[in-house]
Amino acid sequence: MALKKPTPAPKADAAPPKADLAVLTAALAAPESGERRRAARELGAFPEAGPLLCAHLAAEPAASVRAVILTTLIRIKSPAVVEGLLPLLRSEDSALRNAAIEALQEMSAEVEPYVGDLLADPDSDVRILTVNMLSQLPHPKAPDWLAEVVARDAHINVCAAAVDGLAEIGNERAVAPLQALAARFPDVPFIRFAAAAAIRRIGGS
To answer: Sorting pLDDT into bands at 50, 70 and 90, what band is 12?
Structure first.
C-alpha cells in the first residue's frame, strides 16, 4: 500500500506591507477622515513624525482624527513633540489649547526642561495655561513650581490659578508663599481667602 503524502497546510495570508512614512504623510491629507485616522495611528511607528503630526493637529477639522493624533503623540512622547505642541498654547482655538495641555500632561519628563521658560512667558495667558497644566502634571517638582509662581508672579490671575493648583497638590513648602500672598495683593480680598483655603487643604496652620 502506497504511503499517502500529508496534505500541506494552507499558507497563511501574508501580512499586508507596512506603509512607509511618505505614504502615511500623504494620507494625512486624504479627504476621508477614516483614512486620516489610519495614517495618524500608523505614524506612531515613526518617532520622527512627531513634528508633522503636531503641525497637522492645528489644521485638522475632524475631532475624531484630532483624538487619534493626540494618542499617537503621547505614544511618541519626545522633546520634539513637546516643542511642536507648545505653540498651540497660543492658539485662538480653546479646544486645541486644551487638547495640547492634555497631551503635555502625559509627558512630564519631556516637559520639565521647558517649564522655566513657560512660567516666565510675557503672556499671562500662557502662564495661566502652564499653571493649569502643572496642576495635573504627574511630576514631583510640580508643587514647587506652583509655589514659586505664588511667590514671584506679578499677575493676580496667574497667582490665583496657582493657588487653585496648590489646593490640590500643594505640600508644606507652599504654606509660606501662600501666607505671604495676601500682602503682595492687599487690594484683592478674594486672594486672601483662596490662599487660606489652600493652606487648610494642605494641612498648614
So the answer is: very low
